[in-house]
Protein 1
Amino acid sequence: MYIAVDDTDSREGMCTTFLATELIKEFEDLRLLDYPRLVRLNPNVPWKTRGNGAVVLSFRRGRSSKKKIGDIDGDLRYLKGKPKMKEDAFKRAKNIIERFSHLQSSKTNPGLIVTEKRTPESLYEKAVKDIVELKDVIDVLEDDVYRYKGYGNKRGLIGASAALAWRPDDFTYEVLAYRREDMWGKSRELDEEDIRSLDRRIDGSFDSYDHEENKQAIAPNSPCPVLYGVRGEYPEELQKALDIVSGEEPDRWVTFLTNQATDDHLQEVSISKAKPWNSISVQGKVCSNPKTIEGGHVLFEIEDETGQITAAAYEPTKGFREVVKKLIVGDRIELCGGVRKDPRTLNIEKMKVLELGEKTVKIRNPECPECGKRMSSMGTDAGYRCKRCRTKADEDQAIREKVDRELSEKWYEVPVSARRHLSKPLKRME
Ligand code: ATP
């Protein structure tokens, strides 16, 4: 039996993954069949609270599971008791949603689904890449195998049903540690040096510390119940974080199976097909030199045979902007990122330099083809003239020298603190 939930939090608090821990507590008479799943969906949906994540739990009747996968008032390993039916499970899950969701916020619109059957995979594909209409989701859920409830505008049903549709192909894990309730909203005291050491000490972990910006990247800044989350390839390795990170003691922790760091959101398209609120990967040629605008954002144009789009490295991408500034007209590149609607802009997440154009600087005026004497400039971009023979030469006749591009034909990515949950870090692409 699956329980899927989404959209339970608000900017003032709560987190759907924490609510999942309360569901696990409630259903301690059943056995968790699998890692709870944290499924990230389209990072560009304008109505998301933070990371656009939905949660799915799968339970089965029976005793002891083999591995320890969390700790909520005791090991999440030995689960006991009698099976319960779907209708009963729905009532119990509904109680938890109504108790913990931020229903008072108009922006919180929870969705709950209890079922024995996953939703069609196409729903995940659409929801991670594009915008899904609620009515299409309701059409799927109008089948007796799904017991569901949507609150408010019911939008949470989109995320819950899309998360149920995820069949992991590529996947990673995240250990999420939660705070005691009396700490919610207070500042998090965690040892910065311990966090800095995580990527080194935990095999397969990534994105715990932004070494470029000297900033930790595991603890959120919001008043939500999450103390920190550590991401990586191997669940048992990730659990080491609980011993490494000192400071505030977690109240509970759970390992989630996730689609984070998989690039599942990206669609390879031509530029004319770049739709707002989609995330895309495009190849093309730089057709305007990068310029820095107010606020420190760096913009340039890229084109392919179908069209042109403005690409942007926004201020939060920090040092990545210095890389982008080194591009010149004619460079062939691949860009991955989200498409903003107005103005239509590609917000770069990572960039591959495919082929560098040649950059030269003028070192001397040309020689006169008649007398061999050095010619004189007639002004900016106005060409050259020989004072003795009156011969003229165009600007491009100047003697030029190749300049080192300070870029290589390889991938570049934004720093950890500007990275999206779904973006595959270069560390996973090696
Ligand atoms: P939470 O911790 O509650 O999950 P969040 O940052 O993940 O916070 P939500 O509060 O869940 O964001 O808000 C995202 C909303 O957008 C949800 O209602 C979800 O169902 C909906 N949604 C997710 N993906 C899509 C999509 N592709 N198209 C339309 N709506 C979507």
Note: The pocket of adenosine-5'-triphosphate is lined by residues 6-9, 15-16, 41-42, 45, 47-54, 109, 127, 131-132, 155-156, 158-159 (CB under 6 Å).
Protein 2
Amino acid sequence: MEKFDVTVIGGGPGGYVAAIRCAQLGMKTALIEKYPSLGGTCLNVGCIPSKALLDSSEHFYNAVHHFEEHGIDVKAPKVNLKQMIERKRGVVKMTVDGINYLMKKNKITVFTGHGSFLTKNTVEITKADGKKETIETAKTIIATGSKPSSLPGIEIDKKRVITSTEALELTEVPKHMIIIGGGVIGLELGSVYARVGSKVTVVEFMDRIIPGMDGSLSKELQRVLKKNLEFEFMFKHKVTGVKATAKEVTVSALNSKDEKVEIKGDYCLVAVGRRPYTDGLGLDKIGVKVDNRGRIETDDHLRTNVEGIYAIGDVVKGHMLAHKAEEEGVFVAETMAGQKPHINYNLIPGVVYTWPEVAAVGYTEEQLKEQGKKYKVGNFPFKASGRARASMDTDGFVKVLADEATDEILGVHMIGPRTADMIAEAVVAMEYKASAEDISRMSHAHPTFTESMKEACLDATAKRAIHI
Ligand code: FAD
Ligand code: NAD
């Protein structure tokens, strides 16, 4: 039986990053992934393919709506969905190939098959052809990720009633896509199809989209999506069932007055969150505890209740984000090596890759109110940015929340062009406990979108923004 210092189960961004860091630290490392393609949800059916389609559909949207104003005459552009999906597959393949290369480079032994605990130090790998192999391991990191959730009364037939996985592989542009859930997946994939011509209806249980984020972002994103695309929103609607025929779907819901509502379309995307995935892992055999939501229980060192077994990423508590999973992978590897790493969960940024992009870090205004914290608000609208006017991206704003007494930045909430990249400045600032004035006194290249962060800080620190 081959012996390893550490075995990682799951080859997503949590698992493969953990494996690389373990190998860098000198541990003999195995990685078990049940699919032939490494990279997990993120690379295969998540972050990367969704961003590839978001980029393609955004090009199409600009060709239709903005080229003429820019002085570019093209004959009426048409969508070639087959080619968009094909290009997306190419991007995924290139990215997955990169991970294969990294595994070889770091001398990580990759096993393809389903991993399952026999004892706390032996893991069995069942290959696709049913053949089994067993390895011995001193320590194990569980990084088995998550799968889409559904709701009672909904059968996901993967044809008309679909999850994000199928939405990345459609063969036609839907006429009317009904999306259950106005969260990240619903709005990103809804944007893809709305840009290429679908009517999109979002049915959301809460009273706003992206409910976990600062309320000002929900409001502005809703406004812009409605203005630019054929998006319709039905809030405070509780979906009770979905029926599908060969060509049609009917979504039933109860509105806020408890009246029954029916919506008809040709596709229904169910995007109501994801559930941790531990099927067939053999946790019961070794006594690893899970909580009432099926997440593996861990302490603040990401240790499970069984000695030598750690868990990271979507399968444990916290935001289901690739970069959170990666941080946790590094954290566990370094902890095992006797180091003292640290993760500041409050400073893990959240991004929604719509256009305009939405990005945030730290506390929301709602959270600060709830804590009874005294704070100042700085705002800067992109319509006052020269860079945004040049690129015709004037929707949105940067909002900075700072402590009223100390001026320390407590939260940054952005909606606008390239805010997904801009938010990194806010993370660095907050990690170093910068005040709004600190940022406002640093030079930001002109003309860039990042000047809006400086201006919002000027507004927060002493209401002295220059360009508003
Ligand atoms: P996963 O990526 O889910 O990987 C787990 C792996 O474990 C899988 O490959 C699975 O096959 C394997 N596995 C499970 N059980 C076993 C077993 N018993 N044996 C062997 N292998 C097993 N996050 C972002 O930060 N940014 C984004 O832009 C973003 N976009 C997304 C878009 C979509 C459409 C979706 C669905 C998700 C998106 N996410 C995004 C979330 C992100 O994909 C996840 O947070 C991330 O993949 C979690 O990483 P993980 O390693 O914990 O799990
Ligand atoms: P989500 O939690 O972001 O949104 C789910 C939405 O569904 C919520 O707004 C919720 O109120 C709503 N909902 C729940 N039950 C409902 C019901 N019965 N009827 C109507 N609405 C209902 O989940 P998601 O969009 O499915 O995404 C899953 C995970 O994937 C998220 O945790 C997210 O972090 C991750 N993800 C991240 C990104 C990114 O970082 N850009 C992109 C895609 C996915």
Note: Residues 91 and 125 are 29 Å apart (CA to CA).
